[in-house]
Write a structure and sequence with these properties.
This protein is α+β, with helices and mostly antiparallel strands and 380 residues long. It has two domains: 145 residues, Orthogonal Bundle (Helix Hairpins); 160 residues, Glucose Permease (Domain IIA) (Distorted Sandwich), CATH 2.70.70. The chain is 60% helix and 17% strand. It contains four helices and twelve strands. Strands 1, 4, 5, 6, 7, 8, 9, 10, 11 and 12 form a ten-stranded antiparallel beta sheet that branches. It is elongated.
């Protein structure tokens, strides 16, 4: 009789164990679902943060563009003022030389006139009319008249020449004073422009620092470079379409190894070198002082002159036959789209636009849209 309940006890125990297992399993599922929800919330938060970061980055890029454009405007004005100052200085040197020569000429003329007057005075010790009356020989009278007429004419010419010289001297002095006044104004304007340039650079530095904080990882920097390269590719494709209309330009094929580099500087990054990840340099980066002149490597026509993400102030020149050159990170652009450019002509100033920490020039040569090594065309 005692063993009849054992199966019931065993069944009860099994039922309790299964119930405990079920509740434990349900609790595990709930925990996992809760964890999953937490993870999903974190993912959503990261997506939201990533979207917010990208929006912030875009806003900072737009602000950087405004800073670069403002710097370019002031730098271009300052460059014009400096060129004006050099022109005025050359003009002043010429005027001062002319003034000195006129002063010497005036002294020489005064001495000549003084000698003529002295000669006339000495010959005038006797009354002119009496001298004529005392002459018995008609030939002598005629010679005397001719002599006096010659002296009078020489004196008159000397006096008129001296008057002209004095007038030229006064005019030159007036021009000198006017140009000195203009030069002083130009120099004062330069000081104001230099001050404005310093403020704009300070603003860009703050913007750039904030932008760098949004690119904290290598992957984000690589993503940014890929975006910038895509922007450049689009510009190049548009430039190629624009360049097809230019038939009079001769290209660069015959200039291989003969062209000068667009500016003096050190090659910081060479064509084809690794840049980031799979990306390679499609041009060269030349380190050079800010404000140094950038010159066109060959004759051509400007087909792009504007700000470009990652490259700053950019100017692209079509050289014909599928060739074009690109100049980036400029401080200021000295030409606009549509301008015709001569070989060696100043086209821009070295800068650090587009988010560069140091001043320099990014330089590319492309043939039918494909980047080629600039060192093939430009000599060291």
């Amino acid at each position: 009789m005692q063993g009849w309940y054992r199966p019931f006890i065993i069944a009860f125990l099994l039922l309790g164990f299964n119930s405990l297992s079920f509740f434990s399993y349900a609790e595990t599922i709930a925990n996992r679902q809760s964890q999953l929800k937490d993870i999903q919330a974190q993912i959503d938060a990261q997506h939201s943060e990533l979207k917010s970061t990208r929006n912030q980055r875009n806003q900072l890029q737009n602000l950087l563009k405004k800073d670069d454009v403002a710097i370019g405007k002031v730098a271009r004005a300052l460059n014009n003022s400096q060129n004006k100052q050099q022109e005025l200085n050359r003009s002043l040197v010429k005027l001062e030389k002319k003034h000195a020569n006129l002063e010497k000429f005036k002294v020489s003329q005064q001495k000549t006139l003084a000698k003529q007057l002295e000669s006339a005075y000495l010959s005038g010790n006797h009354d002119y009319a009496k001298m004529l009356l005392n002459q018995q020989d008609p030939a002598s009278i005629e010679r005397m008249l001719t002599y006096y007429q010659y002296l009078n004419k020489a004196r008159i010419n000397a006096i008129e020449t001296l008057k002209t010289t004095i007038t030229d001297l006064n005019d030159t002095q007036t021009q000198l004073e006017a140009q000195k006044t203009e030069l002083a104004k130009v120099i004062e304007t330069q000081k104001q422009q230099a001050n404005a340039l310093g403020k704009e650079k300070s603003q860009r530095k703050q913007t750039l620092a904030q932008l760098q904080r949004t690119l904290s990882s290598n992957s984000e920097q690589l993503e940014q470079l890929q975006i910038e390269e895509a922007s450049l590719k689009q510009i190049i494709e548009e430039a190629i379409r624009e360049a097809k209309a230019q038939n009079s330009l001769s290209g660069l094929a015959k200039h291989r190894g003969k062209l000068k580099w667009p500016t003096r500087g050190r090659l910081a990054h060479r064509f084809g070198a690794s840049r980031s990840g799979q990306l390679k340099w499609k041009g060269v980066l030349m380190s050079a002082p800010e404000g140094r002149t950038i010159r066109s490597i060959a004759a051509g026509k400007v087909i792009y002159a504007d700000w470009l993400k990652g490259f700053g102030m950019v100017i692209v020149i079509d050289h014909g036959k599928g060739y074009m050159s690109l100049y980036g990170h400029a401080q200021a652009l000295l030409h606009s789209t549509g301008d015709t450019i001569k070989q060696g002509e100043s086209i821009a100033l070295v800068g650090q636009s587009g988010g560069q920490a140091e001043p320099g020039l990014y330089f590319e040569i492309r043939y039918k849209g494909k980047a080629v090594n600039p060192a093939i065309y430009c000599r060291s």
